[in-house]
Amino acid sequence: MKDVDISIQNITKIEGHASLDIQVRDNKVKHVQLMFTENKRFFTQAIRGRSIDVLSQSVARICGTCSIAHTMCCIEGIEKALNIIPSEQTQVLKQLTMDGLMIRDHALHIYLFSLPDVFSVDSVLDFTPEHTHFLHDSFDIKRAGNKLSTIVAGRAVHAPFPGVGGYAQVPKKDDLKAIIPDLKLAREKLVGVLDEYYNCPVDYTRSTDFVALVGDKFDFLEGDIVSSDGDVVKEKDYFSHLEKNVVPYSQAVGYKFEGDTYMVGALARINLNKKGLHKDTKRDAKKYLRVFPSKNIFHNNLAQGIEIMHCIDHALETIESFDFKPEPKQTFEKKACEGVGVIEAPRGTLYYHIDMDSNGMVKEGNIIVPTQQNQINMEQDIAVLVERLLKTHSKEQIKYEIEKLVRAYDPCISCATHFLEVNWT
């Protein structure tokens, strides 16, 4: 395959719709074009003129699967703009809310979307009797995350309880204790899939920079922006270190950090802060944690599994130790100001910049989602992978490896389970 053109139309494994074109000449990849082809949704224009009273619920509709992440990041941006410091209890509730999100979101990806790649089958429907228990395991784990989100945040999707200055409702101790068996069962089931990913020989290694929010503990909400190259940036300064790259063939812009491509997501978080994981996770996942830091993108799946264990362990400890009591939401005065929220969504770092007037109406805003930040890095990974496989793999095998690589990034969870046909010319 000295000269070949590869075209994957209507990729359904990322947020919205995408296509992929690859041109190979003289056994070298000349270009990779990952095209986000869905019509622009104009997030930043849509939030203009919105009141901060309803903004966090409005942005939740940007993405059904990650609605909680958008809500939490928006709230953080508003609170930092207004100098609102959440109470200890509110911060704990936020952490539990993120735990529930990560458990259910990661479970769907690592079991239903990527695990078939480990067993070299097309989908979970092709699992052998030996492997069908993983399908049931996924439901048990996802159910535990959904229950936690519902009790703490009101719903697993478009959660109504979190708000600026506090939560509208505090979970009852009995309700929280009632889900302890679900969380423990999920943790028990998780070990099997961690073994599968740990033993899987798939290798998509390429040297790249990893970027994530890192604090003293493994926290999806607070910390500094840290890169594997040694950069440390305050949340409020994150955007000034990003370089927007207009991708002429795509409906979405890409980003570089300090002038270089980078990856965000679970792999970045574990690479940069595995020492901050819950003590029980570090004890029981010790074997798997030896893999990290890793430059193998396929290990993003293993990292997500480890994050599920961390979130379960954190939730169990919190439920046992924290005494939740009704407390009023903090009151605040609206004023002309601006603030930045940065959190770790399931797929990576999520950024919100909110500029409001004296009536609390949004004048300007900026939202940068993880998939945008990973776009250019994904293209470079695909180029390296294709060149590596040209002399040893068939066209169909190369297509399948590209699909596995893209799936490992987990660009979107609310999507189909396979790509459409690849056209070779």
From TrEMBL:
The keyword Metal-binding applies. InterPro entries: Ni-dep_hyd_lsu, Ni-dep_hyd_lsu_Ni_BS, NiFe-Hase_large. Its cofactor is Fe cation; Ni(2+). Mg(2+) binds at I367, H418. Keywords: Iron, Magnesium, Metal-binding, Nickel, Oxidoreductase. Fe cation binds at C66, C415. Pfam families: NiFeSe_Hases. Ni(2+) binds at C63, C66, C412. GO terms for molecular function: ferredoxin hydrogenase activity; nickel cation binding. The keyword Protease does not apply. It comes from the Archaea. Belongs to the [NiFe]/[NiFeSe] hydrogenase large subunit family. This is Ni/Fe hydrogenase subunit alpha. It comes from Candidatus Iainarchaeum sp.
